[in-house]
Amino acid sequence: MKKKSTVLAIVLASLLALTSCGSSSDSSSDSSSDFSASDLAELFSDSANVSSVKNGTVGACPSATLGEMADAFMSSPSWEEFTSTTGGTVVQLTGEISYDGYPAEAILQWSVSGSTFDTEYFGINGVGQSLITVSALYNNMCSATY
Questions:
Q1: Quick check: helix, strand or coil at residue 145?
Q2: DSSP state of 126
Q3: Could you tell me which of 137, 1, 121 has the C-alpha nearest to residue 69?
Q4: Most CB within 10 Å of its CB: which of 24, 39, 48, 94?
Q5: Tens digit of each residue's pLDDT (9 = 90 or more) over 97-109
Q6: Which residues contact residue 83 at a Cβ distance below 8 angstroms, ignoring those fewer than 6 apart?
Q7: Side by side, which strands form the sheet with 89-99?
Q8: What DSSP letter does each residue of 23-85 carry, written as one string?
Q9: What is the largest CA-CA distance in the chain?
Q10: Predicted TM-score of the model (pTM)
Q11: 49-67: per-residue pLDDT in tens?
């Protein structure tokens, strides 16, 4: 996770450097090379599939979205989308949780098809967990939103 944070910091620093480049004495400079706040927001906004899962709910917690549950339960939740080896779309949530009283990295993956998604994988510190365990996780995540 530190690698992602470092890369993000480098990208942001580079973008800020690019926006401050250019001569202030040249009033006819082309502003198309400057990044606006909306450009940066678009760069870091969620894909439609990530938004669909983040804004979705599960039966164990119909009162909160998965995004709200992740924010309440995990440290530094991170969402991404990728294509599986079989060509399907996968949305992945990575974040730090407490497991047996110790910090651990949790990974949740959902397969996405249109506007529906199904839990496909749950791992703690790289060790796959039973999908039955997901129900307990969802209950704990839901409780954290109260």
A1: coil
A2: T
A3: 137
A4: 94
A5: 999 999 999 999 9
A6: 89, 90
A7: 75-83, 89-99, 102-113, 116-124, 127-128
A8: -TT-TT--GGGSPPHHHHHHHTSPPHHHHHHHT--BTTBTTS-HHHHHHHHSEEEEEEEEE-T
A9: 65
A10: 0.69
A11: 999 999 999 998 999 999 9
